[in-house]
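Write out the 3D structure for:
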Amino acid sequence: MKGRTIVITGVTGKAVLPIAAELARDNEVFGTSRFSRADEREIVEAYGIRPCRADLAEGDFAKVPKNPDHLLHFAWLRSSADRLSEAMRVNVEGAGLLLDHVRPARSALIVSSSAVYRGNPDPLHRYREDDPLGAGPSIAAATSATCKIALESVSRIAARTLGIPMTIARLNTVMGPPLAFYGKKLRALLDGVEIILPNEREAHNPIHIEDMASQVEALLDAAGRKEPLTINWSGDEIVATSDALARMEARTGRDANICVRPAPGLAGGTVTDWRRRRAITGPCQVEFTSALDRMLDEMVDGAAPANPQRNWEYSTAFQNRIFRGATD
């Protein structure tokens, strides 16, 4: 993808910054955020991204270009259950207002989550795009499933009424950033913190940020014109969390403090069917073990990161607790 104008929301996010930086190599990328810290703008600009302030809660998009070629909507407010109204205002209403602002964009990629699926007791169940939805609890973000389901509905309305071709991508576990799922598990292992697994077979099919960046063009080009295309944005490998922890143990020489027990808000498994996505994008290129070894190189041995990384605090204590791996 070259020579296009792209608006990417939530550009300061841990997975979004490296994707935006990669796309900015050959495109004009505008990255939106509230930019609550002065140095955030400088960091974003250093990767060739044009920072522009936006406030989803207030519907303030005065600095955001109208009529871009594409919109990549990653921005997300994680909130506790008692702040659901605020989360809906930002994550759902704000998204609708943003879509109205950028019309008639050539296409939009709306990032949803695999958390939208109603839980299945089989930890290895592969959730298909037509599986039942249902807002279950989440220890990481109590409002996410509810808001993501609502976001998808607003996006479908926008596709019909505003005429924006759209892809809704239900994102699985992200691989690459040290503050993501496997990085948190490694940090817990190194700190001797208890790692709770809801069952011995808990598994994910993670997707690496490098694969995400390379798949953006195909997902935008495949956007549905009357009805949004919905896909599971996940990797091609099913990875048992216990296997990932065993590899971390072998590399670090430390034993993980694993406790297998059901816990409120922990999904039994997060495996999503990748066949629809793969038919559009082709296979993923980054193998899990290679990506995990790279993460270990960076977090254990201090190797230089292969991708841009967020290394500053989030704007709320709640978010910082989540991304440090705390669950209280």
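The longest strand covers residues 107-113.
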